[in-house]
Design a protein that fits this description.
304 residues; 17% strand
């Protein structure tokens, strides 16, 4: 700590003889209202001194000395920060050990109250960034309506999730609930469609649906909250699973997650030698073949 004489010398500089000088002081002192600082003609003069309260180098310049801290700006910054934390906490809401959070390209989709598809939400961000930015992006976004050509990504209400999308297994076949959308059921059983998207929750229950780009996607099941696994299932008209993949841009499960999922299927009696597998490494299909050879090359999966 500086001596009393050193403090007195610094205080004497509060009344400059040369009005071309500026007042320099520590930023922490500036906010707290302390009067320690001095008048210097430029930054080089102030850079040689440190704050008497050992906060660091003197800072500035301030053309005029106002002992009042910038409290209004400080409180506004704190309020903005609290609002931001409250809004972005949705990204990790519902987290659990070893979960898959939604990926950065889709953060805005999860935070947008209208759940615009990720690329559309990015266009909104670009529009905000090009403006005068007088308010937080997420506050501004809440006021922007959906254009007629854009539809938000569906978020399945929790009370309908189990009744409409949770599956159970019957051997290598899946059984969808009675309230599974009838048009989707008909599309599968008629052979017009053969691929389902799925997610697995913390309790290892699985939920399936048919992907509709920009409308119904992996993020639809839990509103963008973390999941244990996500990917696709190819099924035949009798709902027998014939192929598995880890394809999910929203959650991007890696090889360890896929290996763990395949091990769970194996423990249910699935024939890994007959099951087709596709593995997406984030850039390309790195594997396209039977599940057994790929699974045999992976480190031991987690026990079920």
């Amino acid at each position: 700590m500086r001596s009393r004489s050193a403090l007195a010398a610094l205080r004497e500089r509060e009344n400059p003889r040369d009005q071309t000088m500026n007042y320099w002081m520590c930023l922490k002192c500036r906010e707290s209202g302390h009067h320690y600082g001095g008048w210097y003609p430029d930054a080089s003069g102030a850079g040689a001194l440190v704050c008497p309260l050992e906060h660091g180098s003197l800072w500035g310049p301030y053309a005029t000395w106002d002992p009042r801290p910038p409290i209004n700006a400080h409180l506004k910054a704190q309020a903005n920060w609290r609002r931001l934390v409250e809004k972005v906490s949705k990204i990790v809401e519902g987290s659990f050990d070893d979960c898959l959070p939604i990926q950065p390209p889709y953060y805005l989709e999860a935070l947008d109250p209208l759940h615009r598809y990720g690329p559309e939400a990015k266009l909104q961000f670009d529009a905000w960034a090009a403006g005068d930015r007088k308010e937080l992006f997420l506050d501004w976004l809440e006021k922007q309506p959906l254009p007629p050509s854009v539809k938000g990504v569906i978020q399945v209400p929790s009370d309908k999730l189990v009744a409409s999308h949770q599956i159970r297994f019957n051997g290598e076949r899946i059984v969808v609930p009675a309230r599974f959308p009838q048009d989707w059921r008909h599309a599968i059983e008629s052979g017009r469609h053969n691929e389902l998207i799925f997610v697995m929750d913390a309790a290892t229950y699985m939920y399936v649906g048919i992907k509709v780009r920009g409308r119904f996607q992996h993020s639809s099941f839990f509103g963008g909250q973390p999941v244990k696994m996500a990917g696709t299932l190819r099924v035949d008209s009798s709902w027998r699973i014939t192929r598995v993949s880890n394809a999910s841009g929203h959650y991007a499960p890696g090889p360890a997650k896929l290996a763990d999922f395949l091990s769970r299927l194996k423990d249910r009696g699935f024939n890994m030698a007959a099951l087709d597998l596709q593995y997406w490494d984030g850039r390309a299909w790195a594997y396209n073949g039977k599940a057994k050879p790929w699974l045999d090359q992976q480190p031991t999966a987690m026990a079920v």
